[in-house]
């Protein structure tokens, strides 16, 4: 056995060199808040509604034999002198409002992934050899 290897393990004559390496990771934390707010706006809408009304027109018709017979049977001199009133009618627009569902709104959250470059200072070990001659090797 030589002196050089006596009492030493196989790795006693070597050094291990290490470097620091950057490692990136992520941590999730709240970055903002979103609120869905429903509010009402008022606007003017115009619709068309069909309406009708009654109008009068006098029509003169000659008497027929049947008309004369009916008139003679119901002929009352007091009644003939009275005015006749007739009621005319008209339609008026009535507006009502009805709330109807028209749309569903949903908040959709998408995750966007992107690459971010980060920089940091790292240390690296260096090994140099000092070859100073020992006394045993001097000539």
Descriptive terms for the model:
9% helix; disordered N terminus; 139 residues; little secondary structure
Q: Please state the oligomeric state of the protein chains shown.
A: single chain
Uncertain residue ranges: 1-5
Total count of strands: 0
Question: Percentage of helical residues?
Answer: under 10%
What distance lies between the first and last C-alpha atoms, to the nearest angstrom?
27 Å
SSE string: HH
- Mean pLDDT level: 85
Largest sheet report: none
Quickly count the helices.
2
Gyration radius over CA:
55 Å
**Which descriptor suits the 3D outline?**
rod-shaped
Portion of residues in beta strands equals under 5%
Structural class of the secondary structure composition?
little secondary structure
Task: Provide a descriptive summary of the structure in words.
- It is built from two helices and no strands.
- It is mostly loops.
- It has helices at 65-73, 77-80.
- The chain starts with 64 loop residues before the first helix and ends in a 59-residue tail after the last helix.
- Residues 1-5 have low confidence and may be disordered.
Can you give me a brief rundown of this structure?
By secondary structure, the protein is largely without helices or strands. It is 9% helix and 0% strand.
Can you lay out the helices and strands and say which pair or pack?
Elements: H1 65-73, H2 77-80
């Amino acid at each position: 056995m030589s002196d050089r290897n006596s009492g030493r393990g196989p790795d006693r004559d070597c050094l291990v060199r290490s470097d620091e390496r950057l490692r990136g990771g992520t941590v999730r934390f709240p970055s903002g808040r979103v609120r869905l707010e429903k509010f009402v706006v008022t606007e003017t809408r115009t619709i068309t509604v069909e309406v009708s009304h009654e109008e009068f027109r006098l029509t003169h018709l000659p008497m027929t034999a049947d008309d004369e017979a009916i008139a003679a049977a119901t002929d009352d001199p007091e009644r003939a002198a009275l005015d006749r009133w007739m009621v005319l009618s008209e339609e008026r627009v009535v507006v009502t409002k009805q709330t109807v569902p028209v749309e569903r709104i949903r908040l959709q959250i998408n995750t966007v992934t992107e690459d971010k470059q980060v920089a940091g200072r790292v240390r690296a070990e260096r090994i140099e050899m000092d070859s100073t001659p020992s006394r045993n090797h001097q000539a």
